Amino acid sequence: MKRRHRPEGTLEPMHYAIKNLREVEDVAPRFGFSEVQEARFARKPLESETIGLAFHVVRPQRRQAFAHRHREAEEVYVVLAGAGRVKLEDDVHEISAMDAIRVAPHVARAFEAGPEGLELLVFGPHHEGDSAVMRDDFWGEEAG
Fold first, then answer.
1. Which one, of 110, 101, 106, 59, lies nearest residue 82 by Cα?
2. Neighbouring residues of 140: CB distance < 8 A, sequence distance ≥ 6
3. Smallest Cα–Cα separation from 107: which of 142, 73, 60, 141?
4. I need a surface site. Which of 32, 67, 68, 126 has the fewest CB within 10 A?
5. Residue 34 lies in a domain
6. pLDDT tens-digit map of 81-92
């Protein structure tokens, strides 16, 4: 963690934390997904109690390794760089830099990068064990 602040002489929790998201561990290699994406989850490094935050990089012309949905957590995805597509259940939409996508908890979602790749910032409330991974071919016959 670069900087943190605790009121002097107290045991109070930190009032803020600053962390570069590119310095957060990329967990994709742990699960065999490094060829298609990076996945950096910053909630714990930032010592956040209730907010989930992630930085995803989908490699050029690749799709995320799997789709997922939640029971409770509504999420917002912001495209920081690149372009591509998002599949939300059966709907596919073109997306590009600075698009913000709000996704209700029950909606299955996955991203596909165009030729420049795709960088996404993801945030929403954190609910432990809330995510359900869609292991089947979510994109189906949809051409990449």
1. 59
2. none
3. 73
4. 32
5. yes
6. 999 999 999 999
What is the CATH classification number for the domain harbouring 115?
Answer: 2.60.120.10
In sequence order, what are the residues at sequence separation of 6 or more whose Cβ sits closer than 8 angstroms to the Cβ of residue 100? 76, 77, 78, 79
Residue 104: both structure tokens together:
């209700």
Split into its structural domains, the chain has a count of 1
Is residue 102 domain-resident? Answer: yes
In a domain, 141, yes or no: no
Q: How far is it, in rounded angstroms, from Cα 54 to Cα 79? A: 12
Q: Which of 49, 1, 50, 3 is nearest to 21 (CA)?
A: 1
How confident is the model over 3-49, as pLDDT tens digits? 556 566 666 666 889 999 999 999 999 999 999 999 999 999 999 98
Q: Tell me if 140 is assigned to some domain.
A: no
Nearest to 103 by CA among 118, 93, 112: 93
- Residue type for 128, please? E
Structure token digits, residue 56: 């995803």
What is the C-alpha to C-alpha distance for residues 102 and 54, in angstroms, rounded to an integer? Answer: 15
Place of tokens 């995510």: 131
